[in-house]
Every structure is written in structure tokens, then in C-alpha cells.
Hints:
Largest sheet of chain A: 9 strands, antiparallel
Largest sheet of chain B: 4 strands, mixed
Oligomer: heterodimer
Helix content of chain A: under 10%
Radius of gyration of chain A: 21 Å
Strand order of the largest sheet of chain B: 2-5-4-7
Radius of gyration of chain B: 19 Å
Helix content of chain B: 25-40%
Shape of chain A: globular
Number of helices of chain B: 5
Number of strands of chain A: 19
Number of strands of chain B: 8
Structural class of chain B: alpha+beta
Largest interface: A-B, 57 and 68 residues
Amino acid sequence: SGFADDDFVIKNEFLALTFDQSSGSLKYLTNLETNTTISISQTFAYYVGSVGNNTKEPLRASGAYIFRPNCTGAGPDCSRPLEGNGTYEIVKGPLVQEVRQYICAWVSQVIRLHATSKKVHFEWQVGPIPVGDGIGKEIVSRFSTNLKSGTEFFTDSNGRQNIKRRRNFRPSFNLNLTEPISSNFYPVVDRIFIQDETAGSQLTILTDRAQAGSSLLEGQIELMVHRRLLVDDWLGVSEPLNEPGLGEGLVVRGSHHLIFTNIAKSPRRHRLASHDLYWHPALLLLPVSSTTSQAD
Amino acid sequence: QHDVSALRDAVSVAQHHDAVTGTERQHVADDYALRLDRGVKECQETVVDGINRISNVTKPLQFEFCDLLNISICSITENSKEVALVLWNPLSRTLNHYVQLPVVDGDYDITGPGGTKIPFQITPLPKHTLLLPGRLSNATHEILFRAKLPPLGYTAYNLKKLAKGGVSLAGHTSILRKRA
Lengths: 296, 180
């Protein structure tokens, strides 16, 4: 249920992605091997960085050392969705199918499904983050599903074991939660995942760089992809995390690889996929001229 | 002989907690990037030496790397009529890898080992790539093919730009544009 007649689909023999015709946004993800479908959306949002009051210890600004959104609410209500009067393109060919989402002037994304791939490639591009309004922004990519993952999610630990994280909880002390958003963010060196034990399904995201991630609501994964802040957090770096770059601010491009399969198959799938990504082939190129023959 | 110590040194410096967490000042971040880039370039020369040695070429070939492929820039594929591509697989198992290279609009041909024709797909670059601030490139399209690589080994491919009217094995690509 929920599928509309005018939805469009990109698929290979392993996965199918269903998109809403009017908005071009992702609606459903189907694993064709296990015949399992989940509802899924992927959106970008930003947290407003706190400017704090650096004369008082508990009111530090958000900066290089601390992620501190300017809100006290819990969950994604604290963030602002990135919406624009965007456009999208569908590109279909024999080796790759992709949906290109131009969300706003500084956020765009290609969702790509290769012909023989068991993972979905999200190539996002964010920046330069506009700060003309005087507001520092911290941008997240958010995957929201109907998976019943409860309060738990998992993050890796620098290539060692995956660690179970529980929202608003610490295993070794009683948590006095004063920062409901940032206290639930953890380092993601290369993967983060959620599990629905009743359905037996797991959604894993592999990152291409170390990021911060969380699951602030059941069925949700969010990863911070870019930050631009205007106030130093007074913890030693003595400059705001502004990165003006060419004068406009940095543009960041990166990848998230999504794997959706059952819990039993997932460890093998994401471990092998991470090997493919992190020990990817080296590509050497040589212009062929009269002195370097094709035979060579 | 090339030295891999430049990268070892740069990575060692980048173990500092400020480098790991990004709490260094901007000019220090710039310096870390410079050191890493110099180190990577030295290691690339080592890889070229290795490929030349194991491939038994008659004289060493001056392979190059395209470090800006993530933003679809590669002056070699953009400006050469014919390019030899060597893909080295560092994994101990066979790998099917999709190779995506920026090219200028036109007809192309890709051959693999033994001169076999390789199916490929040509797609126009997304507009956010074309409009990327500071991106200097002639590429308008991207060519994509699937490479099959042996464990701890390499496969060579040949990418050739055809004269107008040449027969290409490009797959058909359709594009639908919508306003959300």
C-alpha cells in the first residue's frame, strides 16, 4: 500500500527504489532478493548553531570542538528542513540508473543504482553554506524509515567492532541529559546501522569519511555532512569553523552507500562492501601516442 | 626508487588529535592537506614503478593519476584521443568495479583484455557538477563501464575517441527532467 500509479522506479535485479513523481523524493526501498519493502525518505536539514555566551561555561557556542544546536527540543523537530523549489532528472541506461535531485542552490544529490550492485549510492553535494543571514548552519542527511528499531542503533569504532548505542543512555553512568541532540551523536568512521528485529531487517549506511551520526527517532539515521559556523567555541582553536575557501565557503561532495537486507546477511554484505570502497582499485592513465603503442 | 616516507610522515602528523577531529586552525588544516598531497604523489610514483615492473613493458611507461575524479575532472580523458587505463585491485578476491570517467561529448570505444569490446554508457554530467565553483574542466559527459579485476592484480583497458560516425558500443541513455 502507499504506491501511487505515477510513482517511478529505478531497479536492478537486487533492489528497487520508488520515487514520488511530483517531488522526485525517495518513497520506498525494496530488496528483491528477500522481497521486503520499507518506506523510506531521504532529506537534508540543518541545525542552527548556537552562538552561546562564551563568558559562561555552560553556554559555549557551537564550533570546531562542540556540536551544539540552538534548541532544546528533542528529535528532528529541532532542525529545519532544506526545501526549495527544486528540480530533478531521471537518467536511465543499461549500466546505471540515477535520480538527480537539485534541492536548492547549494544542495544537490545523485541517487545511483548500478546494474549489478547490491547497494544504493547517494552522492551528495553541499555548499557553499550561505551565512549572509548571520546564522551558522550544520547540515545533516537524514534517512527516515518505518523500521522498528526502538532506541538502538550501531556505529563502528574505527574499523573494530560495531558498538550498540542507545538513545538518551550511557552504559556506565546515569545520564543527566542536558543536550538532547548532540548527546546522541556518535562518531561514524565508516558505518552506522539500525535493525528491526521483528522484521529481521537491517539498514546500513557506509560513509566515505569520518562523520557524526545518530538515530534521534525510531527508524531514522542521520549523518552530519557539512558545517559552517560563525563563532569560536572558546575551547582553544580561537577561530570559527567558517572555512571561507574561495571566499564563498567550501563545497563538499561525498558518498553514502546504503545496504538494505536481512540482519543475518548484513554483516557479510557491509563488510565486503566496505572493503570494496576503502581498498578501491587504483586507476592509472596513460595517453596513447605514437611512442606508446597499444601493444605496450 | 621512490620514497613512501612522505606519506607515512604526513599520516603520522595527522594522528594529532586536532587533525583527527578537525579542531586545528585553518592554516594548519591547509598544511595537513599539503603534506598529505605530497605524500600521496610520491606513493603514486611507487605504484607506477610497481606496475611497470610486473607488466614487463619494454621501457617504463609514464602513467598518471587523476586526483579530481570525484568532481569529474581528468585532463587525460578529456583531452586525449586514446588513453590506456590500468586498474590495480589491492583486494585478494575478484572485483567487479564500475569505472566512471569524465569525457567530452562524442563517440567512444572501450576495449579490454584481448581486444574485447566492453559495453559502456555515456551520460551528461549533472548540472551541479558543471556549475561547481572553481571547477575548470572541458568534460561535458561521463563514460561508465564495468571492469572485472583479478585478485591482487590488474586489468588494462583502452579508451578511444572515435572519429565522427564511428561505430560505438555505447548503451542508450534517456533523461527525463522534472520540476519538483
